[in-house]
Design a protein that fits this description.
By secondary structure, the chain is mainly alpha-helical. It has one domain: MFS general substrate transporter like domains (Growth Hormone, Chain: A, Up-down Bundle). 72% of the residues lie in helices and 3% in strands. The protein is built from 16 helices and three strands. A three-stranded antiparallel sheet has the order 1-2-3. The radius of gyration is 22 Å and the shape is globular.
Length: 450
């Protein structure tokens, strides 16, 4: 059917769920990585070392530092890749397989008491994951018309959050314990049973197997090149219905208003990741130091479940009130629980607060990436995705170190107020984002192009 004959654009839900398998694997991996790695590093770095938490923050920031270089590079490279398997799939397959093989060796190096070995494996894993991160994310806008990308992004994030929840559940079952009188005496606790430190490998192997299954499903069920060809008429029509203030044309600069919007949304992304990644990086230690060794993985799992439950309803919210207002609402839903949580010192009151924050974070993530790629053309989606990750990963790199330094200075009770400051700055910045003047900016049944 030609572009002129089309009367509406439809989102292929089944196919969108399918390409979400790549994102599912990435988020499951990072959930385990960010929970256990700070704990492992805390045990391997001698207690006599000054500024230990700042050092841990620097090591945990390695993936963000490398991401600033690698994700834009591989996003740009995948834009220009031409193979019989498509532009993005070669990177997704190779990167996932490498990550599957490397991930368990983080735990192996910890069990072997090798700090240097653990850091080397972490760096190799980071390279493998960043090889395919931008291509896997860019795959969605490659085959989804612009008016449908919020819905597609909601489905993909829904898949990703299943990975987050599975990872969080693992951390709840395998609670890492260190007795205060001996940092060298370590074990895992599983339903009250004390297990040897060698059990540290189980969460890592579990997630590697999940990723392996996900990539096998994607390989056998998704043909990128065929789908891109099938979607060409829809993509052309979707370009005409873009929410950018002026049309985005190949090889031409964005208009002034769109360019300002582009930098505002990049700034907003950086600011809310300053807040969120500080929480993500230091949550496990916060549970130990402030919540008296409470299994904070339970609250994180609830946060993930709340986000999972929010993504699909948030698609309708975005259509009704617009992407900008949705993001502002999501930021408020993050700020309020964090302010209240600053005064909480036990786990149970944090659970409903984390649920609200999880819903807010889901609303933010549903809309932010699609607002950015709204100002991308079909030829530079990978590059714009790279810019998204420069803002995201750059902020996360700095905040891991900065939050560690603040914690060294003020203690772990400063973690939530730290996040509140950056979320508030993000809210203020997003007030300046300009939206296209139209009565139905998020209409889901666009009329045929002229």
């Amino acid at each position: 059917m030609s572009e002129e004959q089309k009367t509406e654009l439809k989102l292929n839900t089944k196919r969108t769920f399918l390409i979400g398998f790549a994102f599912f694997g990435i988020l499951a991996l990072w959930q385990i990585y960010y929970f256990y790695c700070p704990l492992f590093l805390d045990r391997l770095i001698p207690t006599s070392v000054q500024g230990r938490y700042t050092i841990i923050g620097v090591i945990m920031a390695l993936d963000k530092i490398l991401a600033i270089l690698l994700i834009p590079f591989f996003g740009f490279l995948s834009d220009r890749t031409k193979t019989r398997f498509g532009r993005r799939m070669p990177y997704i397959v190779i990167g996932t397989i490498l990550a599957v093989m490397l991930f368990p060796f983080i735990a192996v190096m910890f069990i072997a008491n090798s700090l240097a070995g653990m850091i080397v494996v972490m760096i190799l894993l980071i390279i493998a994951v960043h090889l395919y991160r931008a291509p896997s994310v860019a795959l969605m806008p490659d085959i989804t018309p612009k008016p449908k990308r919020a819905g597609a992004n909601g489905i993909i994030n829904f898949m990703g959050y299943i990975g987050v929840i599975l990872g969080s559940i693992v951390t709840m079952f395998f609670l890492f314990i260190t007795y205060p009188y001996s940092r060298r005496f370590r074990h895992f606790e599983f339903f009250g049973m004390q297990l040897g430190v060698e059990w540290a490998i189980i969460p890592f192997v579990f997630v590697s197997l999940l990723m392996l299954v996900a990539i096998i499903v994607l390989i056998f069920k998704f043909n990128e090149k065929r789908v891109v060809n099938e979607m060409a008429p829809d993509m052309a029509l979707g370009e005409k219905l873009s929410e950018s203030i002026k049309p985005v044309e190949e090889g031409k600069r964005l208009g002034k208003s769109d360019l300002i919007n582009f930098f505002i949304i990049l700034g907003g992304i950086a600011l809310w990741f300053f807040a969120f990644n500080a929480l993500n990086t230091w949550a496990s230690k916060y549970g130990e130091e402030v919540l008296n060794n409470a299994p904070i993985g339970m609250a994180i799992a609830i946060m993930g479940i709340a986000g999972l439950a929010t993504f699909l309803p948030a698609i309708k919210l975005s259509r009704k009130i617009g992407r900008k207002k949705s993001i502002l609402l999501g930021i408020i839903m993050m700020i309020v629980p964090l302010v209240i949580g600053s005064f909480v010192t036990s786990l149970m009151p944090l659970i409903p607060l984390f649920a609200i924050a999880g819903a807010g974070w889901a609303i933010i993530n549903l809309n932010s990436y699609v607002m950015l790629v709204e100002m991308a053309s079909s030829k530079n989606v990978g590059r714009v995705t790279g810019y998204y990750y420069i803002a995201q990963q750059g902020a996360q790199a700095v905040t891991s170190i900065l939050a560690g330094a603040v914690i060294d200075w003020l203690g772990f009770r400063s973690l939530f107020p730290y996040a509140v400051v950056f979320m508030t700055l993000a809210f203020i910045l997003m007030l300046f984002f300009r939206t296209k003047k139209t009565s139905k900016s998020n209409e889901v049944k666009p009329v045929a192009a002229e």
